[in-house]
C-alpha cells in the first residue's frame, strides 16, 4: 500500500468508499465556462477547515482593533468569522478596513460569483471554505479561461485552492469522458516534496467527496452531501514505492488528477515501459516553481519541455506556475523556453512579502547554549500564551536532518510535561542509534538512584511508542514516518514539530503560533517560507518568529532582515524567564526537592 493510500484509508469515513474510486457512479452533464480575460479584484475571507477546534479568537474580539490591523490574511479570516457568526455590522466594518488596506472595494464574495460548477461551490462551502480569498478570486477567471499564468502571493494566502479549484472545474467528467476512456491524466500538479504532495492529494480527495471527519457527528462535508462527479481518481507519484507500482500495476490507469514530484514523474514518463502521463494532458501546474527549479532543475525543465511538445491535442497544455517567491528571471526562462505562452501574471502583494501580523525576534548565543536557550524560550511562550488563554503550537527548524534527529530526544526529555513532540524529516534521512557513551547514559550511571529519562508523556502510550520508534536507529526515516509526523501535528496530537527546510514550502498546518530557526536561515526565501507557517488565513493568533543565532552570524542575519524589510527585536538571555535550575532547587533537602534538582541537572546535561 502506498503512502497516499495509507493516509486515505486511515481517514476514510467507513461508508464503503473505495480508495481507487472516490464514488462508484458518474454524473451526467458538464457546465461550460464563458469567461473574460480580465482579472477580478477585491478582498475576501475564508474559514480554515481545521481538524478539531481551531485556536482562533472570535471576530467580536477584534471590534475595537480593526484600524490597527493591516495583515490581509488576518482581516480575511476575521471577515469569514464575522459572517459565520451573522454579525453583519462587524462584517461591514471589516469590509471597509479591507478596502482601505487593499485599495479597492470588493464585489461579490462567494464562490458562485466565480462561475464554478454548482457542485464545486457547494463542496467548498461545506468543507469550511466559506469565501474565496483575494488570490483565489483573481486566479479563477484567468485559469478557467485556459490562459497560461503565474500565481504569486504571500505565504498563507490560499494559493493551493487558487489553482486546484479551477483545475477541478476545467477537467472533463462523464458523459463527456468516462474514467475507463482516460489514456492519461487530465491534470498534473508538480510539487517539490512528498509532504506537500500528500497535502494536495488529500485536499483534492475531499473536494471530490472523500471524508476525513474521523467520525465527528454533524459533519456537513460527509460523502452523502456530495453532488459532484463520481468515479474520480486522484493519485500520488511521490516516492519510490509509487514509482514501482506505476510500472507493474494499473495504479495510474483511469487517473483524472496526478500529483507528483519532478523526478518521479520523469522517471515513469521517460524510463522503460514509459506511461503517457504528459501526452493527454490538459493542465500542468507546478507549485513552488522556484524550489522545483532549485532542487530538481533538470527534471523540472525536462517535464516542461516534454509537456510543451508531446500533447496529443495538437497544442501544449495550459501551464500554471505558482509560488510566493517567483523571480522575474524564472518567469522569463519559462517564456523564452516556450513553456509559457502569453502568460497572465496574477499577483497579490509585493514579491517576497511576509504577512504583516507576524512578530520577529532573535537572540544571540553560542552553540553550547542553543538548546537550553530554546527550552527556556519555549517555556516562556507557554507561560505567556496561558495568560492569554490560547494554545501554543510551535515549529522548530533545524539546520539539517542529522541536527534535528540529534536534539529531538533531549527536547522530549526536557519538555515531556509541556509539549508532545513530532519529528518530521525527509524520507531516507538516517536516524542515530543511542550510543552507549551518550550524555544521557553517562549521567544516569553517575547519579545515585537514576531512572530512565522520559521520552514523551508517559500518560500517552501511543505517543511514547511513536517516540521510541522514531529514533530507534534501525532504519532510515521512511515516507510513512513523515506522514505520521505531519498528521500528528496537523491533528493536534502533538504541539511541537521539529523539522528541516523541506517542510517550509506550502504545508498548511493549522494555528501555528510560534516558529523557531535553530541557527542562521540559509537565505531570504527560506526565512520567508519558514515564517509563513504562521499567520496563515484561518488563524487569528498572529505568530512569532524567533531565530537563535551564533555570534558570528549576527552581521549576516541583520543584512537578511534588511533585505526583507524587517526590524526584529533582540532578546537577552537574562530575560528568558525561569532558568532550568533554580538556586532554591540546589538547597532542596526533601525527596521532592532532590527530584527537581536531579531533573534540572539532567536537562542541562542533555541539552549541552
TrEMBL record:
Domain Helicase C-terminal span(s) in chain numbering: 379-579
Sequence motif Q motif, location on chain: 109-137
Domain Helicase ATP-binding: 140-344
Gene3D superfamilies: P-loop containing nucleotide triphosphate hydrolases (3.40.50.300)
Enzyme's top EC category: hydrolase
Free-text note regarding domains: The Q motif is unique to and characteristic of the DEAD box family of RNA helicases and controls ATP binding and hydrolysis.
Family note: Belongs to the DEAD box helicase family.
Protein name: ATP-dependent RNA helicase
Organism: Chlamydomonas eustigma
Organism classification: Eukaryota, Viridiplantae, Chlorophyta, core chlorophytes, Chlorophyceae
Amino acid at each position: 500500500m502506498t503512502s497516499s493510500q495509507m493516509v486515505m484509508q486511515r481517514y476514510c469515513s467507513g461508508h464503503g468508499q473505495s480508495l481507487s474510486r472516490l464514488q462508484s457512479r458518474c454524473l451526467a452533464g458538464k457546465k461550460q465556462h464563458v469567461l473574460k480575460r480580465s482579472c477580478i479584484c477585491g478582498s475576501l475571507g475564508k474559514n480554515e477547515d481545521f481538524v478539531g477546534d481551531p485556536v482562533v479568537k472570535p471576530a467580536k474580539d477584534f471590534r475595537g482593533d480593526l484600524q490597527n490591523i493591516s495583515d490581509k490574511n488576518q482581516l480575511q479570516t476575521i471577515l469569514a468569522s464575522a459572517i459565520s457568526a451573522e454579525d453583519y455590522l462587524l462584517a461591514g466594518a471589516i469590509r471597509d478596513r479591507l478596502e482601505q488596506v487593499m485599495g479597492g472595494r470588493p464585489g461579490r464574495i462567494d464562490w458562485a460569483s466565480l462561475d464554478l460548477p454548482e457542485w464545486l461551490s457547494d463542496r467548498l462551502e461545506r468543507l469550511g471554505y466559506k469565501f474565496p480569498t483575494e488570490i483565489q478570486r483573481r486566479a479563477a477567471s484567468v485559469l478557467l479561461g485556459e490562459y497560461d499564468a503565474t500565481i504569486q502571493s504571500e505565504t498563507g494566502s490560499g494559493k493551493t485552492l487558487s489553482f486546484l479549484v479551477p483545475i477541478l472545474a476545467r477537467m472533463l467528467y462523464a458523459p463527456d469522458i468516462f474514467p475507463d476512456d482516460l489514456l492519461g491524466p487530465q491534470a498534473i500538479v508538480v510539487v517539490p516534496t512528498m509532504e506537500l504532495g500528500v497535502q494536495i492529494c488529500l485536499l483534492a480527495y475531499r473536494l471530490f467527496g472523500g471524508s476525513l471527519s474521523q467520525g465527528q457527528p454533524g459533519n456537513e462535508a460527509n460523502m452523502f452531501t456530495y453532488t459532484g462527479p463520481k468515479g474520480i481518481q486522484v493519485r500520488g507519484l511521490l516516492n519510490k514505492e509509487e514509482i514501482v507500482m506505476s510500472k507493474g500495476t494499473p495504479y495510474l490507469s483511469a487517473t483524472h488528477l496526478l500529483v507528483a514530484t519532478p523526478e518521479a514523474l520523469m522517471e515513469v514518463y521517460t524510463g522503460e515501459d514509459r506511461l503517457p502521463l504528459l501526452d493527454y494532458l490538459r493542465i500542468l501546474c507546478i507549485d513552488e516553481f522556484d524550489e522545483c527549479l532549485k532542487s530538481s532543475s533538470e527534471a523540472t525543465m525536462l517535464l516542461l519541455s516534454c509537456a510543451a511538445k508531446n500533447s496529443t491535442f495538437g497544442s501544449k497544455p495550459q501551464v500554471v506556475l505558482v509560488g510566493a517567491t517567483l523571480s522575474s528571471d524564472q518567469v522569463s526562462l519559462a517564456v523564452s523556453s516556450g513553456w509559457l505562452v502569453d502568460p497572465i501574471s496574477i499577483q497579490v502583494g509585493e514579491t517576497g512579502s511576509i504577512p504583516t501580523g507576524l512578530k520577529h525576534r532573535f537572540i544571540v548565543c553560542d552553540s553550547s547554549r542553543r538548546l537550553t536557550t530554546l527550552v527556556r524560550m519555549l517555556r516562556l511562550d507557554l507561560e505567556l500564551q496561558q495568560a492569554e488563554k490560547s494554545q501554543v503550537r510551535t515549529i522548530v527548524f533545524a539546520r539539517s536532518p542529522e541536527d534535528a534527529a540529534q536534539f529531538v530526544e533531549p527536547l522530549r526529555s526536557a519538555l515531556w510535561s509541556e509539549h508532545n513532540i513530532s519529528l518530521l524529516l525527509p524520507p531516507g534521512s538516517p536516524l542515530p542509534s543511542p550510543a552507549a557513551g551518550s550524555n544521557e547514559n553517562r549521567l544516569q550511571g553517575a547519579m545515585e538512584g537514576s531512572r530512565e529519562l522520559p521520552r514523551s508523556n508517559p500518560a500517552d502510550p501511543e505517543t511514547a511508542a511513536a517516540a521510541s520508534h522514531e529514533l530507534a536507529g534501525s532504519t532510515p526515516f521512511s515516507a510513512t514516518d513523515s506522514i505520521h509526523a505531519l498528521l500528528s501535528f496537523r491533528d493536534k496530537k502533538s504541539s511541537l514539530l521539529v523539522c528541516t527546510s523541506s517542510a517550509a514550502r506550502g504545508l498548511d498546518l493549522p494555528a501555528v503560533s510560534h516558529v523557531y530557526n535553530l541557527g542562521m536561515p540559509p537565505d531570504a526565501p527560506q526565512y520567508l517560507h519558514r515564517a509563513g507557517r504562521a499567520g496563515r488565513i484561518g488563524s487569528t493568533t498572529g505568530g512569532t518568529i524567533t531565530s537563535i543565532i551564533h555570534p558570528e552570524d549576527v552581521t549576516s542575519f541583520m543584512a537578511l532582515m534588511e533585505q526583507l524589510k524587517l526590524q526584529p527585536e533582540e532578546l537577552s538571555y537574562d530575560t528568558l524567564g525561569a532558568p532550568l535550575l533554580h538556586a532554591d532547587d540546589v538547597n532542596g533537602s526533601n525527596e521532592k526537592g532532590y527530584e527537581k534538582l536531579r531533573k534540572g541537572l539532567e536537562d542541562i546535561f542533555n541539552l549541552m
